[in-house]
Amino acid sequence: MKILIALGGNALLRRDQVLSAENQIENIRSAAAQLARIALAHTLVITHGNGPQVGLLSLQAAAYHGVAPYPLDVLGAQTEGMIGYLLEQELANLLPVSRTITTLVTRVEVDAHDPAFKHPTKPIGPMYTRAQAQLLAKENGWRVAPDGAGFRRVVASPQPLKVIGLQAIKWLLEHDAIVIAAGGGGIPVARNAVTTASTGVVHGGVHSALHGVEAVIDKDLCSGLLATALDVDCLIIATDVAAVFTDWGLPTQQAIDHVTPQVLASIRFPEGSMGPKVAAARKFVLATKKRAVIGSLNEIENMLLGKAGTTISMEGATAV
Question: What are the catalytic residues?
């Protein structure tokens, strides 16, 4: 089978952990053990989140006053290389030397006029108390929002439209490589409007220039887009919770075992956390008629076997 596994940024660096290299390596090493076993039997594409990491880089950049802070698209590229390297290293230590593992720094096209730029929802960086978040928001001009028990900075998260460099990913997979791509949702780029000299008409065409934008694309929505483009057999979204729950955080919360995308559409989920995961899984299943699973990073193999997480498919739904 061809499988795409999307590793959550919070799964690779838990909400309660210090943003240290040691903690990330430990968590990636744990995930790599499962990924390596899957790679021995299947064709594998890996994507990953970068919310905690890109937020930390942004904080570090802001602390140095010698130059202006780097924009989020550049910081996103840095996290793609960093996390991709760590994943490559741990996988390579577990797999035969002959197995190729490749990390691709991946651009993803978005619409420069996406309404998300006026309504930031994507959490990045560490967790703060309410008081800390309000102070930082005032000092830095940030927007902040609740995330679990704390608060985090939120930034624009435009819809991914197209994964650039898809041909390279397909070629590598055809040659039995493990591909790590579209990390952190990919580097967000948009097309400039261009003016036709003879008519003065402004338009944005396929040949107009691309430029980076100040945003972080949701990893799950991009992973679903890539999974559809690659026609994978199963999309696995690994996060820091065991499954998709109804009434999350309430005494009545209940895990969903197996559900259709149509049923999921009738349930509301938080925008900055489970919402994009459910949306990505739904779109993938509706587009391909294949299967998607959402669940814990520690249960990737069981998720693939249908023994853990929430399975979304066109048939076999349980009532919720």
Answer: 9-10, 122, 219, 277
